[in-house]
Specification:
By secondary structure, the chain is mainly α. Helices cover about 75% and strands about 0% of the residues. The chain has helices at about 5, 10-35, 40-45, 55-75, 80-105, 125-155. α2 (about 10-35) packs antiparallel against α6 and α5 (about 80-105) packs antiparallel against α6 (about 125-155).
Length: about 160
């Protein structure tokens, strides 16, 4: 067991695990379809118009693996401090990307949890939904990091 985790009182350890597990579930879910359909995910990445073409395929390949590895780290507890920090950073990038896309007038198929194209007969999901959802995920990751750091610091006193 990691030293930071040992410094936490038992209820805080349980809360820490639940928060890490929740983040891991999001990351597992986010990575699954992208791992199965990298070409479709590459098309979604292209639609954001933020990467040079030479980087689209590498990002479409490594990003789902990063999400999966971060999820595994969060569940297992190995390197979890780094995983929580990287997860918060990843969610921050996604959140900013949604804001920038909306500001540029680009209404993207998010690609966050599915690479399937949106049903043309369905009402499109508003970009504000994606921005709000990504803000909540970022908040969850930041809260998890804060709990880990503050509770462990208080336990060390």
């Amino acid at each position: 067991m990691h030293r930071l985790h040992q410094l936490m009182p038992v209820p805080a350890r349980a809360a820490d695990f639940v928060l890490r597990f929740a983040l891991a579930l999001v990351l597992f879910y986010a990575s699954a379809d992208k791992l199965l359909h990298p070409q479709d995910f590459a098309a979604i990445v292209t639609g954001y118009h933020v990467l040079p073409e030479a980087l689209v395929n590498p990002v479409a390949i490594w990003l789902p693996w990063l999400e999966l590895l971060l999820g595994l780290s969060l569940v297992s507890g190995y390197w979890s401090e780094g995983a929580v920090t990287l997860t918060a950073g990843l969610f921050a990038v996604f959140w900013v990307l949604m804001i920038v896309s909306a500001a540029r007038g680009i209404d993207v198929n998010c690609g966050c949890f599915s690479t399937k194209p949106a049903d043309p007969s369905a009402e499109p999901t508003p970009m504000l939904f994606y921005i709000g959802r990504d803000a909540m995920l970022l908040g969850l990751a930041l809260f998890t990091a804060w709990v880990r750091l503050t509770v462990a610091a208080e336990g060390a006193k």
